[in-house]
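User: Design a sequence. Structure:
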């Protein structure tokens, strides 16, 4: 279960004995709440209350210190102030105690002094191999094994189950534990993640045979490689990771940093990582609850075909609106199913999927029969049935819901396909009906929107799980010049001039236009004639990056005289813009045909995940519609084609208003090649931009017209 950078969290999450430092009987104190949780759960291990003021607490012997305990201890709950946490850890090391949880705030979230205190705590714990949860959190609870070093009173509603949760926010964890309709294996409030972080817990849950579903509320990611390794462990174990990650907005990022000291990277990049690793990302706590409920109860479908039955045309209209933009396949019903439904429903009923199965209002007859027919359809892998049964509804409504539930149970038993029932309202459902369904692994979800989002994650996960991993190669072989480029770029800072940037691209098989550099007017005129008119002329200077804005570019120069005039004009414009700029002359390029399509490609560095590939529509569309997508390198050809499919400017590439279709195959090949460059040299490059890359008509390739490469400066360590 434990590999590489991950450790066995058993002493923390499954301790055989627990010492509670700061135990107390004072009402409302953390020391009392932790002790009461252990007592109420009937914790089977040994409990050692620690408080020098008392000889006995809760009918147990109370010890003055950790050293006074006469037997080995697995885990310590530290309920003291921030200044007492490190001394307690030092005592633990002397006694050989492996795990602890620290409740106290006043660490990384509390300004420079707190950050320094946390850094000292982290260094000591890591040096001595301690498993430390927190600080600044409410602790951990193991509901299956009845262990809880947890500083909030556990609700009688909080039950054991198969969902394991890690959340940086203690308040949200408390709310989930108190309100969720499903049961928990582990509840972990990770707080500041000073030693153990979210990745450690996710990885441990992945290997835990009693965990079926993993839920994480994230405020920041400390170690991107470790985090991805944990996600992959969960995927390999076939366990869904359902994540609510805050930090999309600038305001949220500031709040997160103030709360736990986390630092958020680009949310767009993180979203890309989640999709690549099969993580189900939700946008609200209600979505999180319904998605976790669905995964915890239902079996996965074998495909993505959804058959949905409703009881009104209005509900179906709402479904259609809410399903816009979601990846849901309401599969067409087979001819046999349509014929069967025509026998069940009145002639005026439309037979579609989603299906209005109200018919003439005889719900007890028509709805169950319709559900059975849809469930038998070979195109349908998952059946979803709408039925509102709020608590306290009239007994007649409960009777009808029983019939619906019985039909759902029969359909599942006869076909083996998963069945889901949902209420259009999130106000709750009648407990009798919910219990009846869950006994047969049929979840009763709340809320139309929440149900649709949960279904999307459920089906995507199932399809990915059932799809064999691709053996398609990613990237290309590195060029023979790789070591020279690493030497050229290593720590030099600044930018490559445009021609050197295109030379770098050319070494990766990304070709630019025919071009030459000219230091004076006469050379410019001669070289332009050799290239062939018309030509493009650009200023050549390592100190001027954005040439168009300063008047440093001339297009469509048709003869030598036009080239001479353009040479003088761009040199003058450059001197006016930046008198101290190093002017090395101009670049002459062949003019790319007007029937080409402009796109933009680039490499950016994310603060967490390193080099990232960016692709989007070029020209004015870059700023006007923000039409771009990101992906992590390296790319396979199919992944590159998928990136191209995602941009709205795809229409321009497929031939628009009479223009020829562009060379999409060559564009995909270029994305693959650039992704290899990102893998090879991403640690040396601050940013690389090809803008524009001209995509010629099909069969004629691409041309990297303009290239800007910013080089990372060497990071000077303190003391050097």
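Assistant: Done.
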């Amino acid at each position: 279960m434990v590999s590489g950078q991950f450790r066995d969290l058993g002493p923390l999450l499954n301790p055989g004995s627990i010492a509670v430092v700061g135990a107390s009987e004072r009402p409302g104190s953390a020391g009392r709440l932790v002790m009461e949780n252990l007592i109420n759960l009937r914790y089977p291990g040994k409990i050692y209350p620690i408080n020098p003021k008392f000889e006995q607490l809760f009918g147990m012997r109370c010890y003055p210190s950790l050293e006074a305990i006469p037997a080995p201890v697995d885990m310590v709950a530290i309920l003291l102030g921030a200044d007492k946490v490190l001394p307690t850890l030092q005592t633990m090391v002397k006694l050989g105690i492996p795990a602890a949880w620290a409740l106290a705030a006043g660490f990384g979230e509390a300004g420079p002094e707190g950050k320094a205190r946390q850094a000292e705590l982290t260094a000591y714990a890591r040096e001595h191999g301690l498993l430390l949860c927190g600080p600044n959190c409410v602790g951990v609870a193991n509901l299956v094994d009845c262990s809880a070093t947890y500083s909030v009173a556990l609700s009688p509603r909080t039950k054991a189950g198969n969902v394991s949760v890690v959340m940086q926010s203690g308040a949200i964890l408390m709310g989930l534990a108190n309100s969720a309709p499903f049961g928990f294996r582990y509840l972990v409030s990770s707080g500041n993640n000073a030693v153990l972080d979210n990745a450690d817990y996710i990885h441990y849950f992945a290997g835990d045979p009693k965990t079926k579903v993993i839920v994480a509320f994230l405020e920041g990611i400390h170690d991107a490689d470790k985090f991805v390794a944990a996600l992959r462990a969960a995927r390999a174990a076939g366990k869904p990771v359902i994540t609510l990650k805050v930090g999309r907005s600038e305001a949220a990022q500031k709040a997160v940093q103030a709360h736990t000291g986390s630092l958020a990277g680009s949310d767009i990049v993180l979203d890309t990582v989640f999709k690549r690793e099969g993580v189900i990302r939700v946008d609200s706590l209600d979505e999180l609850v319904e998605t976790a409920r669905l995964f915890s109860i239902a079996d996965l479908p074998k495909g993505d075909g959804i058959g949905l039955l409703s009881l009104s045309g209005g509900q179906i209209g709402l479904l259609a609106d809410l399903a816009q933009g979601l990846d849901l396949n309401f599969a067409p019903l087979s001819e046999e199913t349509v014929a069967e439904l025509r026998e069940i429903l009145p002639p005026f009923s439309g037979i579609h999927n989603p299906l209005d199965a109200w018919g003439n209002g005889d719900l007890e007859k028509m709805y169950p029969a319709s559900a059975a027919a849809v469930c038998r359809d070979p195109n349908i892998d998952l059946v979803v049935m709408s039925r509102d049964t709020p608590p306290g509804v009239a007994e007649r409504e409960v009777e009808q819901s029983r019939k619906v539930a019985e039909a759902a149970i029969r359909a599942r038993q006869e076909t083996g396909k998963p069945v889901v029932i949902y209420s259009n309202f999130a106000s709750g459902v009648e407990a009798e009906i919910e219990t009846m369904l869950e006994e047969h692994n049929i979840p009763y979800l709340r809320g139309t929107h929440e149900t649709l989002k949960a279904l999307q994650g459920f089906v995507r996960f199932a399809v990915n799980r059932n799809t064999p991993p691709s053996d398609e190669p990613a990237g290309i072989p590195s060029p023979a010049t790789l070591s020279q480029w690493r030497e050229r770029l290593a720590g030099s800072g600044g930018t490559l001039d445009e021609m050197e940037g295109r030379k770098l691209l050319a070494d990766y098989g990304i070709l630019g236009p025919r071009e030459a550099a000219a230091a004076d007017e006469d050379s410019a005129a001669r070289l332009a004639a050799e290239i062939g008119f018309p030509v493009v002329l650009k200023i050549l200077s390592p100190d001027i990056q954005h040439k168009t804005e300063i008047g440093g570019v001339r297009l469509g120069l048709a003869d030598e005289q036009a080239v001479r005039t353009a040479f003088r004009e761009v040199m003058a414009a450059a001197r006016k813009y930046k008198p101290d700029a190093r002017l090395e002359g101009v670049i002459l390029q062949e003019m790319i045909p007007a029937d080409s399509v402009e796109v933009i490609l680039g490499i950016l560095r994310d603060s967490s995940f390193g080099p990232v590939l960016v692709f989007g529509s070029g020209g004015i569309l870059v700023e006007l519609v923000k039409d771009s997508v990101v992906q992590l390198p390296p790319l396979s050809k199919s992944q590159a084609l998928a990136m191209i499919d995602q941009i709205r400017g795809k229409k321009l590439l497929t031939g628009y208003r009479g223009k020829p279709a562009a060379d999409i195959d060559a564009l995909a090949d270029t994305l693959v090649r650039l992704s290899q460059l990102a893998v090879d040299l991403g640690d040396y490059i601050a940013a690389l931009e090809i803008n524009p890359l001209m995509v010629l008509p099909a069969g004629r390739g691409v041309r990297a017209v303009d290239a800007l490469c910013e080089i990372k400066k060497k990071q000077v360590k303190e003391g050097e």
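The chain has four domains: 10-281, 300-466, 514-590, 597-711. Confidence is low (pLDDT under 50) at residues 249-265, 716-720.
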